[in-house]
Hints:
single chain; two-stranded antiparallel sheet; 16 strands
Amino acid sequence: MKKIFIYILLAVFSLTACTDLDLNPLDQGSSESWYSSEIQFEMAINDFYRLAFWYYTPTPHEHLQWSDDYTCRDNRSVITAGTLNSETGFVKTFWNNQYKSIGRAFTVIANLDKGKENGISDAKLKQYEAEARFTLASRYAYLVFAFGDVPLIKGLIDIDEAYTISRTPKKEVIRYIYDNFDFAIENLPKEYSNKMRATKGAALALKARYALYFGDYEIAAETAKECINLGIYSLHPNYGELFLTKNAAESIFLLPRSLENGISQMVRNAIPRTGNGGWTAVNPSWALLASYECIDGLPIDKSPLFDPRNPFKNRDPRCTATIVEFGTTLLGVEFDPHPDKKQVMNHNTGKMVKNNDTRANATYASFNGLNWRKGIDETWGPSTSYQMSNDYVSIRYADVLLIYAEAKIELNQIDESVISVINQVRARAYGVNENDKLNYPAIGMMSQNDLRKKVRNERRVEFAYEGLRYNDLVRWRIAAEAINRPQPGLLHPASLLKEEVVKPGLWFWAYTPTIDKNGIADFSEIINNNKAQVLSHGNWDDRQYLWPIPDEEIIINDNMKQNPGY
């Protein structure tokens, strides 16, 4: 454990020379001979953008299971089961990865003078330092959001100090985060030829995001506005196509994945079973489906346009761009979980085939009848061995717009600029301009509380399947309300579903769920009347608003204190 601790915290190891972004072990370069050329600095800085440093979990989509937007058959995650502890694997990995990245950033900074001695220009060295400080700010922001107080290391330290270092108050770490973001904002270029490198806009966007997360609303609003005013980002005109578009103008900071370079992700769990050999083990939740407004701008329990028998009709277009509508095609095959739909059309072959996406035919078809659509295309299928290579977008322009809106709402500084940015995002969902108010449900001025509800739901439907819902539940302190409730799914076996739901004409939902003050759907009437089964039940524990410090850090350092409840 001492070796692990030293490796994570000290950064006294020599920095890696690495040109790719995969997760293979790095070649070691001697600190005596390294950093003598721009190429060597570039190779070292590439490592800042290693995908593993930007994920909560070793498996990128694993943390999607931590929110109420997601189901995994009848399973619960560690987070939703309330069993997070100091020995949880992803907690240790996350902690280790953040401090590894911090150590490498400080190693680059410590060698800037060597670069100058070897003829690298001051401007180029300033950029390298800015990228290192962008990394420091981002990594410490991740740590503070997860753990609260964390050890704040401001440079290379020796072994004696490492074994006695304690946790620094969160407020002090946050000041350090903002200082490093500000340095990056001042010294990074506006644009590169690609967006996998930190830019001024990326630093502004991430500073705004974490200022919002930390409740520093004035900083969040001002910084988001500065990012908007750069004038170099725009909303992609087609919401559905955005997630299939490489290096889109909306992407402010992304990390590329590609099959050619071996940087991809296994996604067989997320695609249908029929015709493409998927597993449909992970699915959108019924709660997420219920969260999309109707085209009149009203929630489903208030809109006369909502039909629980046809829940995709008259809905915000982001609904069917995110979740597969029954009877439509995904990956060339019709998707329909209806128990009487024994065969479907495989448009790839032009033939009717056995429908393995209904549990009447396949026991492990989607347990709740839903399947993801967002970002999925033929590259997710058997032709690539179920490896997807969509860009990993850390932050995009729609997020900055909604960060600005939410921060201004929390400050109760509600004006036309707030309404405008929300309407820009809503209008794009309908494929129209903000001013084309006849063709989308534009919002107008309303109370702070009503606008708060609007922007929170807007975030949910805009960023579904992008990993932000868990963060929002935590910072809004509504994780218990969202997670500690039954996760509903289709009755099983199919004979029971037919008898209780299909035969009385109640497919898909027997009743319209109600939506509470936090925008969370209540399916108790459907469950209590035996029209759905409970797949699992959440058990969120409020101690999880802060993660536990990994046990090995506590064991080897008497000054490292644990968070409450662990």
